[in-house]
């Protein structure tokens, strides 16, 4: 394994401040200069790419006492609240790399003062783009952990909101924060999550999705087990339900868990609308998911094996639409599903403006042309397009991807043994779902095991007056 | 270990799939028969005709008929397949027609194969053709396939016409029930157009009697626990006609002493709307009069019909079933002896709810 220079310095017995500075000087963006006139010159060093030079020029240099003989005296007039005195060179090195300015005194090289001056370069809080809702708050998380914590804390101004911070990644040294409300959240879950995160042995954590993939209970499943959201209001709301939230510095998405299956189909808009509408839309969403998974396999199964199931008035339409098509229904369906996947993939990779063109080209030109050329039946085209549309109704993006994927085994089984195959695949999916746990809790809760009082906010959402109790009561620690 | 099991089981299922006898029937690669008819030739042979709709790309439907002669209906399909471009499947058959001639020689043998075949639905309509069954199928009517046409025709006559509810399931139920005999609608080909004329009554599987026009409505009212929408008219006097439109009728049996010779009372409650009346002004008194007179007419018709059924020794009304549910000492043979001689009394209660918008 390749060793990095800063690791090497840990091994040498007593690395001096000089040595550290010599190593850091190898980088072009490391600045070091002397300040003062006499023999007690101050040595100021920092990475100019990491610090905010405004702080240096405005708050630091004018207030330094150039004529004092000790380091304490020199920095005593600084208008900065948190000065760090350190005698460990390793400490100095670590802080210099995260945006601190170090001040040492020529001649007295056993002590350094570290001043926090990191530049807070990040996006401003903007509109949520993935989980947009017409009504409700319009703030979304940004890449800066501190801003994100601020967005959540200002929604929950209570002392019970606890934030635990960990550093993960040998290279990225990412800050990962685990949030929970003391007394509501299950302590076992918090300690499990913290332990799993601190046990991670990885080089880099680029995004929160890394964490969510690495700390789940069951890794070999297409079903996501942490909800990935960019809405701070949603995070604050679920913290109040006793869930925990994981934020990663540099990731504009927070994770919340333990999340059960039905929660992946709840949108935050469900709570902004009246309960009647919210319940209706939720039911529509569940219907859309089932429709999206099952309709193409059922079409293939019926057309291949079960012509008896068709209503007598529908046979005419279907036979005409299928007449002259040279492929069996399964091939036709697979090709069309793949076309939709191609369009989606192309649309996702291309810049927004070109992406729209792709949608039009794919949807209208390819669709119409292939029907006119007699390669696909127009009924199947409608079915595939509808099922694609239905899969996009899921509020959590990752769940939408899952639904698009699990349709394919259903399709193949439908081709293989008809409706029986669809039923068998459905049983497999159900068994798989029953076996998944998220942080030890069953994934299908509250449907199975049935929890009557949690059902009030699952497939439907009852009015707030009936939702005064938390959906998942605190488990015994 | 786990991976080994998964790999093994998937390989095994691949090979074992060869043992599955699932035959793909891709919709546009098969011929779907929608109606079949059977005609009598001699004791062991019959002719069968199947209608297969060919759906044209311009949304037109062409009915093509195939005919074959054989001794068992499965053989017939083989002979028909020898004439067609695609194999014929029977899963979407809507209507099965038997000629009257064939029905006189026990239908049980013919319906047995339908009940055994799981692809033939239980709600298939069976019908008897007064004449040559094939004639009903040959002429194309409108832009629908012939099977759908006939099944729609029977269906709407069941919902709002003279036919009591009937299908393969009810037919075979009545055939196998101990105190009941089946009936089927009867169709007459008239210049190639089907005309539903009434009901054919069976003794077990043998055709016995065909109802006359004036018997149809009262037959439906007596057979069905509750029926509606059919209309009937009656001559009440010299130049006096009344016609009512039935909203709801209910039949109930009162059997004080089952399995004896004592009379069986049938109560018929009818609620109706006056549709046509050739008399003078209609007021409450007049309506009472019409009710009384029509009740008498209906009572006579019903009792006459029942006596006729008793004479023919058939029981399409299921009186035997009614008796069987009311007694512990049911004996089929004894009932068969009793049935022709039991006196029936029909009490009709007609309630005219409104007499129309005429002042």
UniProtKB/TrEMBL annotation, chain A:
Keywords, sorted A to Z: Membrane, Transmembrane, Transmembrane helix
Keyword Membrane carried by entry: yes
Any one GO BP annotation for this protein: spore germination
Membrane topology reported for the UniProt record: Multi-pass membrane protein
Superkingdom of origin: Bacteria
InterPro entries: Spore_Ger (IPR004995), UPF0353/GerABKA_families (IPR050768)
Localisation: Cell membrane; Membrane
Keyword Transcription regulation: no
Transmembrane stretches, start-end: 283-305, 355-373, 379-398, 410-434
Cellular component GO terms, alphabetical: plasma membrane
Family assignment from sequence similarity: Belongs to the GerABKA family.
Protein name: Spore gernimation protein GerA
Organism: Peribacillus loiseleuriae
From TrEMBL, chain B:
GO cellular component, one term: membrane
GO BP field: spore germination
Subcellular localization(s) per the UniProt record: Membrane
Keywords on record: Germination, Lipoprotein, Membrane, Palmitate, Signal
Domain Spore germination protein N-terminal residue range list: 26-188
Stored InterPro entries: GerAC_N, Spore_GerAC-like, Spore_GerAC-like_C, Spore_GerAC_C_sf
Annotated membrane topology: Lipid-anchor
Pfam families per UniProt: Spore_GerAC (PF05504), Spore_GerAC_N (PF25198)
Ranges where the Spore germination GerAC-like C-terminal domain occurs: 197-356
Family according to the record: Belongs to the GerABKC lipoprotein family.
Protein name: Uncharacterized protein
Source organism: Peribacillus loiseleuriae
